[in-house]
Amino acid sequence: MKKSLALMVLMLAAPLAFGSASGGPMSGGGDTGGMTSAPRMTPQQRAVSSCNAGLNHKKRAQEYEAKAATAKDDKERDKQLAKAKDQYDDAIDDYKKAIGYDMRLYQAMNELGYAFRKVGNFKDAVTAYDAALAVKSDFAPAIEYRAEAYLGLSMFRQVQDAYLSLVRTDQDQAAALMRAMEAWLQLHQENQAADVKAFTDWIVERKAVAMTTQSLSTNNVHAWN
Fold first, then answer.
1. Are 131 and 98 in contact (CB under 8 A)?
2. Cα torsion angle, 89, 6, 114, 55, sign
3. How far apart are CA 29 and CA 140, in angstroms?
4. Read out DSSP for 18-72?
5. How confident is the prediction for the chain on average, in pLDDT?
6. pLDDT interval class at 38 (50, 70, 90)
7. DSSP code of 221?
């Protein structure tokens, strides 16, 4: 089961071109001019290198998103968001390569899911997060991110299950998911569909519970002399 989920992500990748450690063509049997060729990278090293390249694209994408948030008009905003999307697309290619080199690299699978989600491809994002969690089932960031992808797919029961799980295991990630749900509410507050209204009521209820729990925890803190 774990291998099949990872393979689902791998199938999204384009064929890989294996080169030398320096990124150039593989050396043949010709004269090297007395120079010693660089040691070849292991598949695991190539995986980490590709994942890091993807993270660099992610960083640049986030910089463009920050510029979009402060853009002076819609035209400039759209321009910056388009640049961010290009960076996420490049990141997706790098993460696919990383997974091709090492199908146990759950961090790359998690980041692949993030990039897919940022370009609006929620279905493939869920597949990538599933693969990451098949390798490391308690990886809380993937649980939280996958729940945000579920939001994009209106899979409300799965979002609720993820939140309740994180409340028990990782309060920081639970808080991050609550913020994501609140942001989702702002975009859908006019939606009167029955399932959306029920989910909205559930979020309001869980937020109240979280605030009460936090207040009780704060009040129970003692100062010891």
1. no
2. negative
3. 49
4. ---TTSSPPP-SS--TTPPPPPPPPHHHHHHHHHHHHHHHHHHHHHHHHHHHT-S
5. 84
6. low
7. -
If one counts every other C-beta atom within 10 angstroms of the C-beta of residue 157, the result is 10
Task: Tell the residue number behind the tokens 């993460």, with chain if given.
Answer: 95
Q: Are 179 and 208 in contact (CB under 8 A)?
A: no
| Contacts for 167 with CB less than 8 Å, ≥ 6 apart | 174, 210
The distance in angstroms from the start CA to the end CA of the chain is 54
pTM of the model: 0.79
Tell me: the pLDDT tens digits for 180-224? Answer: 999 998 888 888 889 999 999 999 999 998 887 765 554 444 443
Q: Are 103 and 132 in contact (CB under 8 A)?
A: no
Q: What is the pLDDT of residue 125?
A: 98
C-alpha distance from residue 192 to each of 2, 85, 94, 111, 154 (Å)? 39, 31, 41, 34, 14
Q: According to the model, what pLDDT value does residue 19 have?
A: 35
Domains located in the chain, CATH noted: 1-12+43-137 (1.25.40.10), 139-217 (no CATH)
Question: pLDDT tens digits, residue range 149-181?
Answer: 999 999 999 999 999 999 999 999 999 999 999
Write the DSSP assignment of 66-109 as a string of letters.
HHHHT-SSHHHHHHHHHHHHHHHHHHHHHHHHHHHH-TT-HHHH
pLDDT of residue 212: 78
List the structure tokens of 30. 């010709």
Helix, strand, coil % in the chain, rounded to nearest 5: 70, 0, 30
